[in-house]
Amino acid sequence: MVLAGYPVERKSEAWQDVNAEPYIYIENVTKSFGEITPVKNISLSIYKGELFALLGQSGCGKTTLLRMLAGFEQTSQGRILIDGVDVTNMPVHKRPVNIMFQSYALFPHLNVFDNIAFGLKRDGLSKKVIRDTVKEALSIIQLTGLEDRMVNQLSGGQRQRVALARSFVKRPKLLLLDEPLAALDKKLREQTQFELVNILERVEITSILVTHDQEEAMTMATRIAVMEDGKIKQVGAPHDVYEFPNSKFVAEFVGNINIFNGIVVEQELDHVLIESPEISCYCYASHSGAIPIGSSVSFAVRPEKVVISMLQPAYPRNWAKGTIKEIAYLGDISVYYVQLPSGKIIIATLPNLLRLTDRSFQWEDVVYLYWRSENSLVLTT
Question: d(Cα 320, Cα 58) in Å, to the nearest integer?
Fold first, then answer.
């Protein structure tokens, strides 16, 4: 029982425990194809029970890394350990790994039961064990009663769950998910994200998700590794990667953001002051690291952190004046594109609490934009 007024003690995550042993350990792994090196000296520690996401654009190396984990590609250097066992040179069929492909790769001539049972039958298990195991899997994916249906008679979401059940039914130590929701339409994809997470939590299988979809990674993953050009740029929980990007690349890649250039004119223990000709005022950023005075830096503010007002702020920092040039109505929110005298565009998003006809700001309105010091991010290249 939790008593009102007393804080709830939160369980620390495995990666926050200095004594926790990684369940999946990728050590200095590189993969080269002749002169092309899609994966460059990557090291990662992934812990038991995680749903870890590799996020990046096409060609960043995330799929090549996934294929090395599965055993479809051999490492050029480095090693891969799963539950303390070095699997670097272990053949595919001996690895405790299963993979769910983007296309699902279901057998169209088999029904739901036989698709899920395929791997169990190849392992020579008894009919009773297979029947009981598939029955449990059908219950987990909420398709009980559809075991005799052919897969081409299922919806996209149902086929996705059948493919997932076939992947986890053998209880692999590691489940690899290669763009598992790419074949679904947007609405179904959003619904299925939570279903997939709930299923994986229930079967307690460590999983690695490969995706280029930021929303998918942010919604599903316990932690995210953002990749670029074969390297990992940042690893962290979704909120850490979004709120505290460690570089300009990560800030621009994950979500929308306003980025300005400036010069550091004041540096203290708790803040940095930046002068920027793009906004004609000083930016005061708290919680910044040590940056020498005179350094050229970028600072950034997320659109949802920007406040729009018809009144000029009373304080001399962290605000700009501009003219609304575009408004994008997205139903739940509106996106405002405000042009400053310097020509710079600042993006601000506001929830649509009022109907469209009652909106406070219109095209060509002159407005003031401001933001809090803790929402100013100082970025490196």
Answer: 36
Write the DSSP symbol of residue 65: H
Q: What is the pLDDT of residues 144-200, one digit of tens each?
A: 999 999 988 988 888 888 988 888 888 899 999 988 877 677 777 777 788 888 888
Burial class (CB in 10 A: 0-12, 13-18, 19+), 275: middle
Instruction: Please write down the HEC assignment for all residues of 335-355.
Output: EEEEECCCCCEEEEEEECCCC
Question: Domains of the chain by range and CATH?
Answer: 19-248 (3.40.50.300), 256-379 (2.40.50.140)
Per the CB < 8 A criterion, the answer to whether 286 and 376 are in contact is yes
Beta bridge partners of 307: 370
Task: Determine phi and psi for 308, rounding to 5 degrees.
Answer: -105, 135
Global pTM?
A: 0.85
Helix, strand, coil tally for the chain in percent (to 5): 25, 35, 40
Q: Characterize 318-333 residue by residue with b for buried, 16 or more Cβ atoms within 10 angstroms of its Cβ, and e for exposed.
A: bbbbbebeebeeeeee
Q: What is the dihedral of CA 351, 356, 358, 364, to 10 degrees?
A: 90
Whole-Å CA distances, 301 to 40, 123, 264, 298: 31, 54, 17, 10
Q: What is the pLDDT of residues 209-265, one digit of tens each?
A: 999 989 889 999 999 999 999 999 999 999 999 999 988 999 999 989 999 999 999
Confidence of residue 358 (pLDDT cuts 50, 70, 90): low
